[in-house]
Amino acid sequence: DADVTQTPRNRITKTGKRIMLECSQTKGHDRMYWYRQDPGLGLRLIYYSFDVKDINKGEISDGYSVSRQAQAKFSLSLESAIPNQTALYFCATSDGGNIYEQYFGPGTRLTVT
Amino acid sequence: GENVEQHPSTLSVQEGDSAVIKCTYSDSASNYFPWYKQELGKGPQLIIDIRSNVGEKKDQRIAVTLNKTAKHFSLHITETQPEDSAVYFCAASEPPSNTGKLIFGQGTTLQVKP
Questions:
Q1: What is the DSSP string of B38-93?
Q2: Are residues B104 and A42, on separate chains, in Cβ contact within 8 Å?
Q3: How far is B109 from chain A, CA to nearest CA, in Å?
Q4: Would the CB atoms of B100 and A1 count as touching at under 8 Å?
Q5: How is chain A split among helix, strand and coil, in percent rounded to 5?
Q6: What residues of chain A lie within 8 A of the CB of B98, using their CB?
Q7: What is the pLDDT of residues A51-94, one digit of tens each?
Q8: Which residues contact B83 (CB under 8 A, 6 or more apart)?
Q9: Rounded mean pLDDT of chain B?
Q10: A108 in contact with chain B, both atoms CB, cutoff 8 A
Q11: Which positions in chain A touch B4 (Cβ < 8 Å)?
């Protein structure tokens, strides 16, 4: 969905490096989410944010941090990347009309060597 | 917390046949059940959803059924076409109801053979 963009789309990094994945949205939604997708495991929630001042951990937040710089921007950081963080990462948004109807970005494929 | 199981993990059908994907959930307080389709190289896209006060919902060739007693719901695709080939995810809302959190199934890769 072009309304939710993620950068970079692909990234290869080395173990121990810090990396930031960025998400921007033009949908005007207040809620934003970060997921990771692994084969056979589906989508798992890393962090979610209701607004700029409200950030919450998801089920797999260890090793990750986030920043909500503005209503439209939500960044995910890996402070010290490790190989088992190799995955496909998705950002999603939703709004108060239907908080569960989530719109996903195109994803970032991250490889940690 | 909520847990969602999805089956099968892969499904291959001939064009024109029907496809059924099934999911079970664990928390009876879940009240919203969406289905997402993920095409290659793209993010998941919502294709249909159902709320707990409804037993069935249809949208052209796709339908979703919900059995609250058994805590399972299913996606039905009729007259499948090659463009239906994708990965499909079910999900369930995680209580409490104000979080917007979804718990996803493991995904089903559907292949429609021409």
A1: E-TTS--EEEEEEETT-SEEEETTEEEEEETTTTEEEEEE-S--GGG-EEEEEEEE
A2: yes
A3: 10
A4: no
A5: 5, 65, 35
A6: 99
A7: 899 999 999 999 999 999 999 999 999 999 999 999 999 999 99
A8: B112
A9: 94
A10: no
A11: 42
B87 touches chain A (CB under 8 A): no
**Pairing status of strand A10-13 against strand A108-112:** parallel
User: Could you tell me if B111 and B12 are in contact, meaning their C-beta atoms sit under 8 angstroms apart?
Assistant: yes
Average pLDDT over residues B42-60: 93
- Reduced to 3 states, what is the DSSP secondary structure of residue A91? strand
Within an 8 Å CB–CB cutoff, is residue A88 touching chain B?
A: no
**B42 contacts in A (CB within 8 Å)?**
106-107
Q: What is the pLDDT of residues A22-60, one digit of tens each?
A: 999 999 999 999 999 998 889 999 999 998 999 999 999
Confidence of residue B107 (pLDDT cuts 50, 70, 90): very high
Which residue of B42, B100, B104 is in closest CB contact with A43?
B104
Tokens of residue B61, six digits: 């060739």
